[in-house]
Design a protein that fits this description.
Largest sheet: 2 strands, antiparallel
Number of helices: 0
Order of helices and strands: EE
Strand content: over 45%
GO molecular function: cyanate hydratase activity
Number of strands: 2
InterPro entries: Cyanase, Cyanate_lyase_C, Cyanate_lyase_C_sf
Structural class: mainly beta
Keywords: Lyase
Protein name: Cyanate lyase
Organism: Halolamina salifodinae
Length: 35
């Protein structure tokens, strides 16, 4: 994943045992090869 065009979102998610946090990373996919 490329960090040049990159976004990070942090959302609060309600849960019966207490609120939780959802972290989403969004970036450009970079293909790779196994050597």
């Amino acid at each position: 994943m490329s960090a040049i065009d990159f976004e990070c979102h942090v959302d609060r998610v309600e849960h019966e045992a207490g609120d939780r946090v959802r972290i989403t990373y969004e970036g450009k996919f970079l293909p790779y090869r196994k050597w």
